[in-house]
Design a protein that fits this description.
The protein is mainly α. It has helices spanning 5-16, 53-70, 96-112, 117-133, 162-179, 182-193, 229-236, 275-279, 292-308, 351-355, 362-380, 403-417, 420-426, 429-437, and strands spanning 82-84, 93-95, 137-138, 141-142, 145-147, 160-161, 210-212, 216-217, 255-258, 261-264, 381-382, 385-386, 390-391, 396-397, 400-402. It has a three-stranded antiparallel sheet. The longest helix is centred in the C-terminal third of the chain and has 19 residues, at 362-380.
């Protein structure tokens, strides 16, 4: 869909240009963990993962924290968009969405004792100070992909992004609410208060997806349900340049029915039903249109049924092995999912699909993660936890992890365990005012 071309098409084009942008030549383009075309031998299933469900979620969080701590610049705080799953990456390709998830991950790590508390706080402050005072921006919004060490626009086709800036801002506000520190608060507020949300309307009733200095606003708009809820709520809550609450009603909520499940359809990749829920607590709340938490529950149920419906084509899918969302594949980054079917589905499994839905369908999702950990062992689980994707039918295991998939996995595991992210983020007065302004009760 046109809606996804800004992020997905850029990554696809960058992968094709791997010689010009060598950031991808060890990740997306490798056809197996060992490189080349020889399939990796999949071991026979072992007796199973013996830890508790909580222990597995803790391990997912610990390894994700390691990613966000290790794969970030200590001088800018910016986080790699992707990294080798075994560590040791040197690519300078950073995404502001990865940094947004990373700020929240650092705070979770502080709460959980995954690292030195003083060092974690110092990294958070370094990140916020760089974003507030040195990172290039336009009307307060940031470039989607930047250089890890300088914060400069990564290449001339990278856009100023509304969704990725919003993911970053969620992390910024979460860090502010977690620490309640004067310096962190000042930096976070400076970042938020300079964002000119009405500018991104570009004369319309819905927000443009992006802007480039060479060509202006992108024609694609955030005009139907997906991960966009965070964008509008943050814009409506702005203390300086707010959107009108009427923008909440300007985007459509198209219905879909699948095997008896009726819910709002945004797009086929499952992450569209996850990302806003990582920070905003929609449990037991509804506006005049929907209960969005229940909507994500139904979307996750439908996605599982969709994967199981493909078992005649792809024997990899089963009751305890399902889940696809935008991710790497053997042939490059792919925006795939269902229902309805989207993308060249080939039996690939994306652990972040089930990990990101843990609060929605816990028993089904944790069963998938336990099965992957048990059956595919060290092939699918590396230093940073689960690899981004793998295909049991071709024995392909992605050598990379991707920051946004690490992030959604960690945040939703923590929300399932304690509700910590929801509780802290909900304490922000801007969040409370935005939810009230659009009619949540």
């Amino acid at each position: 869909m046109e809606r996804k071309q800004t992020r997905r098409q850029w990554i696809t084009n960058a992968a094709k240009a791997a010689l010009a942008y060598p950031i991808f030549n060890m990740g997306i383009l490798a056809l197996s963990c060992g490189g080349g075309n020889k399939p990796t031998q999949v071991p026979a299933p072992n007796p199973g993962y013996t830890g508790s469900d909580d222990q597995l979620m803790d391990e997912i969080e610990r390894t994700a924290f390691d990613f966000f701590w290790t794969e970030a610049s200590p001088t800018t705080g910016q986080v790699r968009d992707r990294a080798l799953a075994v560590g040791g990456d040197t690519r300078k390709f950073s995404s502001i969405a990865s940094t947004g998830f990373g700020l929240t991950a650092l705070c979770i790590g502080d709460k959980r004792g995954y690292g030195n508390s003083a060092q974690i706080k110092a990294r958070v402050l370094t990140t916020l100070d760089f974003l507030a005072n040195q990172m290039p921006h336009e009307h307060g919004f940031f470039y989607h992909f930047v250089n890890l060490d300088t914060g400069a626009r990564f290449s001339s086709d990278v856009e100023i992004s509304t969704i990725d800036t919003s993911i970053l801002l969620c992390g910024v506000l979460f860090a502010r609410e977690h620490y309640k520190d004067a310096q962190i608060t000042a930096a976070a507020n400076a970042i938020y208060e300079r964002m000119d949300w009405p500018w991104f309307l570009n004369g319309g009733t819905t927000l443009s997806m992006g802007w480039k200095p060479e060509s202006g606003f992108l024609t694609a708009r955030w005009d139907h349900y997906c991960e966009l809820m965070m964008i509008y709520l943050l814009g409506i809550a702005s203390p300086t340049h707010p959107l009108s609450p009427s923008t909440w009603e300007a985007w459509t909520r198209p219905p879909i029915s699948y095997q008896g499940l009726n819910y709002i359809y945004g797009d086929s990749p499952l992450f569209v039903h996850q990302f806003s829920h990582a920070w905003f607590d929609f449990r037991s709340k509804r506006d005049k249109f929907a209960n969005y938490f229940q909507n994500s529950i139904d979307a996750t149920k439908a996605h599982k049924l969709f994967c199981l419906s493909l078992r005649n084509q792809f024997a990899s899918y089963s009751e305890n092995l399902w889940g696809i969302t935008s991710s790497d594949s053997m042939n490059g980054y792919t925006a795939w999912g269902g229902p309805p079917a989207k993308g060249p589905i080939d039996g690939t499994i994306v652990p972040g699909a089930s990990a990101g839905s843990l609060p929605f369908l816990f028993g089904d999702c944790i069963a998938v993660l336990r099965n992957i950990r048990s059956t595919y062992g060290q092939l699918a689980w590396k230093r940073y936890g689960f690899v981004d994707a793998f295909n049991p039918l071709t024995n392909w295991f992605n050598p990379d992890v991707i920051g946004i998939d690490q992030g959604i996995s960690m945040l939703m595991a923590e929300n399932q365990r304690s509700g910590f992210v929801w509780q802290v983020f909900s304490s922000a007065p801007e969040v409370q005012s935005a939810m009230k302004a659009v009619g949540f009760s």
